[in-house]
Automatic annotation (TrEMBL):
<keyword id="KW-0812">Transmembrane</keyword>
<keyword id="KW-0813">Transport</keyword>
<feature type="transmembrane region" description="Helical">
    <location>
        <begin position="6"/>
        <end position="22"/>
    </location>
</feature>
<feature type="transmembrane region" description="Helical">
    <location>
        <begin position="391"/>
        <end position="412"/>
    </location>
</feature>
<dbReference type="Pfam" id="PF02447">
    <property type="entry name" value="GntP_permease"/>
</dbReference>
<feature type="transmembrane region" description="Helical">
    <location>
        <begin position="253"/>
        <end position="274"/>
    </location>
</feature>
<protein>
    <submittedName>
        <fullName>GntP family permease</fullName>
    </submittedName>
</protein>
<feature type="transmembrane region" description="Helical">
    <location>
        <begin position="158"/>
        <end position="176"/>
    </location>
</feature>
<dbReference type="GO" id="GO:0005886">
    <property type="term" value="C:plasma membrane"/>
</dbReference>
<feature type="transmembrane region" description="Helical">
    <location>
        <begin position="459"/>
        <end position="478"/>
    </location>
</feature>
<feature type="transmembrane region" description="Helical">
    <location>
        <begin position="302"/>
        <end position="318"/>
    </location>
</feature>
<feature type="transmembrane region" description="Helical">
    <location>
        <begin position="27"/>
        <end position="45"/>
    </location>
</feature>
<feature type="transmembrane region" description="Helical">
    <location>
        <begin position="330"/>
        <end position="354"/>
    </location>
</feature>
<dbReference type="InterPro" id="IPR003474">
    <property type="entry name" value="Glcn_transporter"/>
</dbReference>
<keyword id="KW-1133">Transmembrane helix</keyword>
<feature type="transmembrane region" description="Helical">
    <location>
        <begin position="196"/>
        <end position="218"/>
    </location>
</feature>
<feature type="transmembrane region" description="Helical">
    <location>
        <begin position="366"/>
        <end position="385"/>
    </location>
</feature>
Length: 481
């Protein structure tokens, strides 16, 4: 009854059963799972977990003596501290890009760069990079009308375009911060955000390339024509396609909300990689000041706040709305992000309770001498949870909660970023009717459920497995330790 694997099984059963069987909101299911796991975990296991993390004996005993509710609330709060501001600001950036027309300007630039004949590749790349600062469903809502408009122009390749935007947005959502899942994951597994961003983009480009080739094959095998719908009549699509460029913000201005946070975070990561002591710039007052500015804004919270301010300024310059109008846009964004913060924090509480069972030590014992097997294990755990309950974010949270204790293992043999990437790729498998993203793509594209199961579901399976192969090769050739 006290074996960590048994407690894990009960916890996952409650979360998955609650979401699927009882139709509970993920927040409630995760909190209930955390409560049961905490109840089943003996105080001795909690104390041993704290000691393994380097906690002083007195503090470890104090943690073991805390009430269940207090332990859950502490982990809930710790997660909010890690990702709360980031998700809120990412929501504001996404909403502002959408409302100001900046996102559409970026997409049109990509189309011009690739050419109309290469529209699928342009949509693939655009949706991937837009999916970094913007939530998955927002990317789909943004891109789908443009997919239909492009199909009207081309007269073909509707399914290919739909699969391209799904491929790009889905992979960015699980591999590259500041998407909610990767943000939680890097906090749990102590992975530098800059490294996760760079590695996530590299792995993501491999996976979406394979996804593109698969989409081309499926489009040839079972082409699907664009269908008229009440929410997106073809006459309205033609009006969108005819919108003048002068009605959109300039490209440079449109890119600022994305480039500012990414630039500061990547610059801070590069500085940390070059020197940890500051010897290279110690003799120059200018360089010292510049480094101080980069490090100040390179903090992930401040970087996203700066990007959010830039996004609101772009929105204000285009909309020229009243203060009340701007407030309404921000409120709408925060309502969207708030639900994700609650679910993610509840997942943090659930993962924290699982960690206190000693599950990471148990898994480490089972895989002793087979460290490379941890990468497919991380992939498998995330895939099983995703398939069972439908949410890639919950799969990321659950798998990282289980495996986070292994990330600091000195004998791991490779950087824990590879475990994080494996979890991200595993969380793509397998989307079906229990996945909200599955229904979003079905309803917006007017694909039937059967068509989506034949196209979208295998697309993400192919990309997830491709990512696993790339990660295994990378961990072997470039362990980064």
């Amino acid at each position: 009854m006290t074996d960590p694997l048994f407690i894990l099984f009960i916890g996952v059963l409650i979360v998955v059963g609650g979401i699927i069987g009882l139709k509970l909101h993920p927040f409630l299911a995760l909190i209930l799972g955390a409560l049961v796991v905490a109840f089943l975990t003996p105080a001795a296991a909690v104390e041993q977990y704290a000691l393994s993390k380097g906690t002083a004996p007195a503090a470890a005993q104090a943690l073991a003596n805390k009430g269940i509710g207090e332990r859950i609330a502490t982990e809930f709060g710790n997660t909010c501290a890690k990702i709360g501001i980031l998700i809120a600001m990412a929501a504001i950036i996404g909403k502002s890009l959408l409302e100001s027309g900046a996102a559409e300007r970026i997409i049109r630039f990509m189309l011009g760069l690739f050419g109309v004949d290469k529209a699928p590749a342009a949509f693939l790349v655009s949706s991937f990079f837009l999916g970094i600062p913007i939530f998955f469903d927002t990317v789909i809502f943004l891109m789908m009308p443009l997919v239909k408009a492009m199909t009207v122009r081309l007269g073909k390749n509707y399914l290919l375009l739909v699969m391209c935007i799904m491929a790009g947005a889905a992979m960015a959502n699980s591999l590259v911060p500041p998407a909610p899942g990767p943000l939680f994951l890097i906090g749990e597994m102590h992975i530098p955000i800059g490294l996760m961003m760079i590695a996530g983009v590299i792995v993501g480009l491999f996976t979406i390339t394979t996804g593109y080739l698969f989409a081309v094959w499926v489009n040839r095998k079972m082409p699907i024509e664009i269908r008229d719908s009440l929410d997106a009549p073809l006459k309205d699509i033609r009006a969108i396609a005819a919108r003048a460029d002068r009605e959109l913000p300039p490209l440079g201005l449109s890119l600022l909300p994305v480039l500012i946070p990414l630039g500061f975070i990547c610059a801070d990561t590069a500085l940390n990689a070059i020197s940890k002591t500051g010897e290279l710039w110690a003799d120059s007052a200018f360089l010292t000041g510049l480094v101080a500015v980069v490090k100040f804004f390179g903090d992930k919270n401040l970087a996203l706040i700066t990007g959010g301010i830039a996004a609101l300024l772009v929105l204000a310059s285009q909309k020229k709305t009243s203060k009340e109008g701007m407030s309404a846009h921000v409120q709408g964004a925060l309502l969207s992000g708030g639900g994700i913060i609650l679910i993610t924090a509840a997942g943090g509480a659930f993962g924290g309770m699982l960690q206190q069972t000693g599950i990471s030590t148990r898994i480490a014992d089972l895989t002793a001498g087979y460290q490379m097997a941890l990468i497919p294990l991380a992939f498998l755990i995330a895939a099983v949870v995703r398939t069972a309950q439908g949410s890639a974010t919950v799969a990321l949270i659950t798998a990282s909660g289980i495996l986070s204790g292994l990330a600091m293992n000195a004998n791991l043999g490779f950087h824990p970023v590879y475990l994080g990437l494996a979890i991200g790729c595993g969380s793509k498998i397998v989307p079906w009717m229990n996945d909200s993203g599955f229904w979003i793509i079905c309803k917006l594209s007017n694909l039937t459920e059967k068509e989506a199961l034949k196209t979208i579901s295998p697309l993400l399976v192919v990309m997830g497995i491709t990512g696993l192969v790339v990660i295994l090769i990378g961990a072997k050739l470039f362990p980064l330790v």
